Every structure is written in C-alpha cells, then in structure tokens.
Amino acid sequence: xxxxxxxxxxxxxxxxxxxxxxxxxxxxxxxxxxxxxxxxxxxxxxxxxxxxxxxxxxxxxxxxxxxxxxxxxxxxxxxxxxxxxxxxxxxxxxxxxxxxxxxxxxxxxxxxxxxxxxxxxxxxxxxxxxxxxxxxxxxxxxxxxxxxxxxxxxxxxxxxxxxxxxxxxxxxxxxxxxxxxxxxxxxxxxxxxxxxxxxxxxxxxxxxxxxxxxxxxxxxxxxxxxxxxxxxxxxxxxx
Length: 239
Hints:
Porin; 8-stranded antiparallel β-barrel
C-alpha cells in the first residue's frame, strides 16, 4: 500500500470517526460557526541550503527534504459567513538527503515535524454551492526525534532549530448538503531553520519553504448545538 493510499484511508477514518461522534447531537449547517475537516495532505518542501564545515562554506553543497503525503485536519471558526480563522495541523516524518557536491553522503538526517498553521481567512460566495476563500497567517514547525540518517558525517546527534514562517493560503469548499463539504486547499510557507551535526563542525542554513496541498471532506455546524447537548446530558444525569 503506497503512502497516498495510506494517508487517504487514515484521513477518511479520522473524519468518519468524528462525524459518527458528533452527528447525533448537532445538525449540519452551511452557515454554522465551526467546521472540521479530514484531509489528505502533500507536504512538498522547496529546499535550498547553505552548508558549512568549520565555518567555511562547502562549494556546491545543498540538501533536499523529502516530499510526504500524510493525513491532516483543520478546525475553522467562523465569526460570520465571510471571516474565519483556521488551525491546520498534522505530523510528518521527513528525510534529508545531501545533494550537489555532498550527494555521496546520502541521507544526512531524518526528523519528525509538528507544523501547526494558523490563518485568518476571507470566504467568498457564501450563499453559493462553491465557496472559495483566501487566507494569510503563520506556521510554526517543531522538529523532534531528529536522527543522523546514514551518518556518513559521523555525527553524534543532529539538532534542527524550530522555525516560524509566513503563510499564504487559497482554497475551495464545495457544499454537498447537510453541512458536508468537499475541500481543496493550497498553502505556501516561507520558513528558515538551522541544522547542526554535533561532533562534526558541519552546519546548514536551510530555507524549507513548503508547499502544502490538501484535499478532503469537511463538516460544518454550530458549536452551540454541541455545548447545548452537553448541558442537557449533564442536567439529565443530575436528575
């Protein structure tokens, strides 16, 4: 089973589970104030690196960060039909491979990332079936469980600094009825980080600049329905 199929099935299971849990207590609403989406997401870094050893730049050295396809989710709160804020997140594991004059080193690092993105959005055609939107905001990428890859550099450890970058977004929601939507979304983030191979004197200043492409399903409803149901259940329990 390839990564795309695995990611799609995981995202579908995530959204199906969420829908199963919430559908008995809240009705879908195309003008509701909250939307949850389950997505298949491609994280496609546009990598450019400056690699140094002992403070001197290694001519022609560069690095490539692997593309990955993963399940992801978004939580969107609508202040009104036009204005919303969205939180996007997922987890992914990427490999870092030497290119150019250091291509012979192969995989020089690997890392897990936690890359939440928060964007403010403007939604168009709010009464229509097809609802495009644009957004802008910030993405924070936390790196953890960094590994040394094939470790032909002989590093004792790899450290990758967390990064914060600016994000632009464009997307499209297509209503299929009863609060359900199809979604397609593209985000572009500009983000820089530093990588240090401990014990070697080798460092890299890396522009990651990922393109994040998503497609999936969404469910829109009113948060008040959920909280109202919770209050009713609590009152019934007390009785």
